[in-house]
Amino acid sequence: MSTTNNINSKRKAILLLADGSRYEGTAIGKIGIAGGEICFNTGMTGYQEIYTDPSYYGQIVVNTTSHIGNYGVEDDEQESDSPKIRGLVVNDFSNDYSRKTADGSLQDYLEKNNIVGISDVDTRLLVRYIRDKGAMNAIICSEDLSDDELKAKVAEIPSMDGLELSSYVSTKEPYFVGDENADIKIAVLDIGVKTSILKHLASRGAYLKVFNAKTTFEEMSEWNPDGYFLSNGPGDPAAMPYAVETAQKIMEEDKPLFGICLGHQVIALACGATTFKMHNGHRGLNHPVKNLISGKSEITSQNHGFAVDLTTLKEAGSMELTHINLNDDTVAGLQVKGKKTFSVQYHPESSPGPHDSRYLFDQFINLIKS
Fold it and tell me: Where is the Carbamoyl-phosphate synthase small subunit N-terminal domain (predicted)?
């Protein structure tokens, strides 16, 4: 077992929600101030993958599982180059870690990456409150500021509704993943892609070129890919007309196209549906989804605060509903009629999470080969 002793010597921290709700706890991570939309993830494991998922950019994450930090951090579990969360709220923060393969403690990791957090919060109480009131902006502070000063800072945080964030997390320059001699070439539009998604595609015999979020279809098509992929990512899909236009042009070319989460929403928008901001969103590893084509159900990993409106999907007439969330009947998957295009509102790479949905990567590769 390894131990780190720099957990801010039990320094006080405050969590203040936009509606005035206030929680006191102990500072973890970097001493400072951090604000963003507060949301909760119900996963029992995989905290490092959650924190480094670009889809969480601009958000404060509440972990609902009681103990966080007890297995440390490991370089291989990064989903991007660094944590993308704005802040962290936990119940019991472990200063010790016992995993032999760990590269360090979570406290050191948070400090190194300038993540402000708070522990010793009754997260059951907090999550029930957010569940009922809905996701809202919040601020974490471990500095000496008054409540009035914190309220003023919360008021300055922009609403996630209407916020474009993909351009902040996307790669600046194109890069390649996989074997350059592979038979299949896939162009990836990075609007917040997770590393494990790229690994799953490459492991199935694909050579990937990952493009910046605002790359045009014309630029991507110059590489002459066999298929296209639209990634997950943060923010409001309705604030991304550039990606919607790219998706429309890909479908006009009629090469295989697969979208996950934000990519799924962009495809729906490109086909005439609309999206909406959810009361809470879905974030966790145990969301049940039914595949309406096979009739089978899957336990899925999810992370999204927006969803495709089912009524407008049906009214558009160009899409078929393929998957539905069994908790609230929201759209969980679609395919475009007459096109080689499909998408899902969850994470088949499941990092972390169950492996029920990894067949979707095989489905994409087989579509390219057909």
Answer: 11-141
Q: Which two tokens stand for residue 105?
A: 């403690």
CATH architecture of 2-155: 3-Layer(bba) Sandwich (3.50)
- On whether the CB atoms of residues 49 and 85 are closer than 8 A, the answer is no
DSSP annotation of 320 reads E
Q: Establish whether 55 is an annotated binding residue.
A: yes
pTM exceeds 0.85: yes
Measured distance CA(105)–CA(122) in Å, rounded: 23
32 is in an annotated binding site: no
On whether the CB atoms of residues 200 and 186 are closer than 8 A, the answer is: no
| Segment 59-84, tens digit of pLDDT | 999 999 999 999 999 999 999 999 99
Compute, in degrees rounded to 10, the torsion defined by CA atoms 236, 238, 240, 246. Answer: 130
DSSP string, 97-155: E--TT--B-HHHHHHHTT-EEEES--HHHHHHHHHHH--EEEEEE-SS--HHHHHHHHH
Q: Where are the domains of the chain?
A: 2-155, 166-369
Catalytic-residue membership of 261 = yes
Of 200, 261, 264, 271, the active-site residue reads 261
> For 158, which DSSP code?
P
| Residue 262, annotated as binding a ligand | yes
Is residue 156 annotated as a catalytic residue, yes or no?
Answer: no
Task: Measure the CA angle with vertex 225, ends 221 and 228; round to 5°.
Answer: 85
The verdict on whether 39 is a catalytic residue reads: no
41 in a known ligand binding site: no
166-369 folds as Rossmann fold (3.40.50)
C-alpha to C-alpha distance for 107 and 98, rounded to whole angstroms:
14
Asked whether the beta carbons of 48 and 77 are under 8 A apart, the reply is yes
> CA angle 323-328-331, nearest 5°?
30
